[in-house]
Amino acid sequence: MSNSETGTHVSYLDHQGKYKGLLSWLLTTDHKKIGLLYLYSITVFFFVAAILGVLMRIELIAPGQTIMDAQTYNGVFTIHGIIMIFVIVIPALPAIFGNFFLPILIGAKDVAFPKLNLFSFYLFFIGAIFGVLSQFIGGGAPDTGWTFYVPYSAESSTNVIYALVAAFILGFSSILTGLNFIVTIHRMRAPGMGWFRMPLFPWSLYATAWIQVLATPIVGITLLMVIAERVLKIGFFDPALGGDPVLFQHLFWIYSHPAVYIMILPGMGIVTEIFPTFSQKPVFGYTAILISSLAIAFVGYFVWGHHMFTAGISYGSRWFFSFLTFIVAVPSAIKVFNWVSTMYGGSIDLKPPLLYAISFIFLFMIGGFTGLTLGAVAANVQVHDTAFVVAHFHYIIFGGMGFAFFAGIHYWYPKMFGRMYSNRWANIAWAVVFFGFNLLYFPLFVIGIQGMPRRYFDYLPQFQTGHVLSTIGAFVLFTGLVMMVYNLVYHIKRGAIAPANPWKGVTLEWQIPSPPSHENFDEIPVITTDPYVFGKSTENKPS
Amino acid sequence: MTVHETHSTRIDSDTGKLGMWIFLFTELFLFGGLFLVYAVFRAKYSEDFHTAALELNTFIGTLNTVFLLVSSMTVAMSITAVQKNQKKLAMFLLIVTLILAALFMINKYFEWSHKFEFQLFPGSEVLKNLPRGELLFFGLYYMMTGLHAVHVLIGMILLTINFFKIKSGYVNQDHYLHLENSGLYWHLVDLIWIFLFPLLYLIT
């Protein structure tokens, strides 16, 4: 249905609703506009946190004090972590691409609760502002690390309460988004779209949404308990008052480990959309991919203990959590094999989205294998709280979720804005980002094994080579990110007009004009085929 | 299914209820964290929990349980009244519910202030000198009943809004999703109290 040429089509960006100007954005209930609100705010917060990251790298370029004192450094890495984790990595993919494309991919006109969707955005924004404010006002930036480990977080004189409140509000926003998606997927799929005809990105969002809904309340109450501990001296976690600090770690990680899968599952969903399109082949092992998504979501609840191998839990629970942690690797590996098999024998079109998707696999594999190292009790004790851990989770979170995000934005950009970016610049930016990323994080594996602790502002001279390489990598990566964002932002207004289906995709979003109209579909499509059917059969058309 | 056809401002009732049920599950998990902490410390300091629980007034607790149970009934009756198009009766039953909720809060106020008189509040010197388990018991008591009281207040606000929505005719025989969902929320408040009451007041 490429009827964008008929002239009757009005893009959602030009749609005239009840309000004009800025209010038409701030009061919108259109899932696409809310997706863009998230995109813009998350991009801004990302650069705030990325600059803090670069500042840390500059501080670490030489032993001793370089540009900031130790307390400032503690604040910088804490706020970097809080913003990155709670404001960007957890919400980004569901809130941006989930909001924008979930209804379109399942053939619906909007999410189930459009007003609640806008409310979630406001909660998100308020929470994010709280997080940033905690850096600048009152008793100074929180210095607990993003994990808020007690008893220190109950005693530190800094703005820990701001940060806790920020995380609590952001968690609430995350719950409401997940709830909205579950109901949308259950109730609003287009006629004919049975569960096993749903594209895989919505499937990954479905698995994610259940984690958001079931796990986030636990961290919510845990954060409230820390606030109560600080304000009222209740003593849940303070050993001096009879409490138990390890109990905090249990409660914290029983959410925060599943939260890792909130971060990565939608990323896996995005690259699962990209591989078939750029190989012009149906995805290999549709059912295996969706079952592995659900399996990851399920097993993800049972592995939190691997964060606590050195915290004094019993020998039995250590090997048990180690075993369970290894099990999560199985569904992840299934996915990797499926993606590679999808490309095998396909007519591969190496465009920027596919470049990012392939680098996603590469970086995610490095992150995954080092994750197994950390999941093994003995190896974990060696590298616990070293730069190795920092490298591992940046490979998973940035190399995984981050690169999936870049893949997604390059894939769906034409649909979202109706314009094309410059392929050449996108390719160059990709190369710089990929090179900078590895130069930044790979040396940390090495110095981590050698014994460089994480979160230290000073270090012994033998680690300097690694730190210098890493800092150079940080600058390269940052340059690459700026190039990428510039390319994308510049072409929002000035790029070539995008056709409805620039990549010859077959899922529903490519069957409607770019950018979509206010209600996505003039007529709700009737689904008659499986989601990834390439070649002659291009049914799945509305009307 | 009409949701497929139009951008309706009203959410259809099955969709709305599914959303509410999922939200209630998240609320249960929120309290679940506290129940878990309670279980851990009760196992660790069972003697102290026993002693500390003697301080609580079982009579007030029982009275409050009765208030909440009856209010759960009246809110359910008011939904039925709306379904039968008995607007006046529905509004009356909501008022009864709100009065019962208010009585609950008044009781709670007297209960807490009575303890404050004995310096039994978080952070007080008296509490700090108690055995560790008793200190934790009172910490949990204030945290759990406090969080529950916040939910009672939210429930009261929701029911008040519904009162005016019935009055204006927005909630009526054909569209009572708002009232039904608020009723579900109120039942949750009741349900959580039914767990809190034996855990804090009765097990001595």
Q: Helicity level of chain B, as a percent range? A: over 70%
Q: Report helical residue fraction of chain A.
A: 55-70%
Specify Rg of chain A, calculated over alpha carbons. 23 Å
- The poorly predicted ranges of chain B are 1-8
Q: Count the beta strands of chain A.
A: 0
The gyration radius over C-alpha positions of chain B equals 20 Å
- SSE succession of chain B: HHHHHHH
Shape of chain B: elongated
- Uncertain regions of chain A: pLDDT < 50 for 5+ in a row? 1-6, 537-543
The N- to C-terminal Cα distance of chain A equals: 9 Å
Largest sheet of chain A: none
The largest contact between protein chains, plus residue counts on each side, is: A-B, 40 and 39 residues
Structural class of chain A: mainly alpha
Q: Provide mean pLDDT of chain B, rounded.
A: 91
Describe the structure.
The complex is a heterodimer of chains A (543) and B (204). Chain A is globular and about 70 Å long. Chain A is mainly alpha-helical and 543 residues long. Chain A has 15 helices and no strands. In chain A, α9 packs antiparallel against α10 and α10 packs antiparallel against α11. With 204 residues, chain B is mainly alpha-helical. Chain B is built from 7 helices and no strands. Chain B is elongated. The termini of chain B are far apart. The interface between A and B is large, with 40 and 39 residues.
Explain briefly what this protein structure is.
Chain A is built from 15 helices and no strands. Chain A has 543 residues and is mostly helical. The longest helix of chain A has 36 residues, at 70-105.
Give a quick set of tags describing it.
heterodimer; A: 543 residues; mainly alpha; globular; disordered N terminus; disordered C terminus; B: 204 residues; 81% helix
Helix and strand layout, with pairings?
The complex is a heterodimer of chains A (543) and B (204).
Chain A: H1 21-26, H2 31-59, H3 70-105, H4 114-136, H5 152-155, H6 160-187, H7 200-232, H8 245-279, H9 286-299, H10 315-343, H11 352-375, H12 377-383, H13 387-417, H14 423-450, H15 464-494
Helix pairs in contact in A: 2-3, 2-4, 2-15, 3-4, 3-6, 3-7, 3-8, 3-13, 4-6, 6-7, 7-8, 7-9, 8-10, 8-11, 8-13, 9-10, 10-11, 11-13, 11-14, 13-14, 14-15
Chain B: H1 13-44, H2 46-53, H3 58-83, H4 87-117, H5 125-129, H6 132-168, H7 177-202
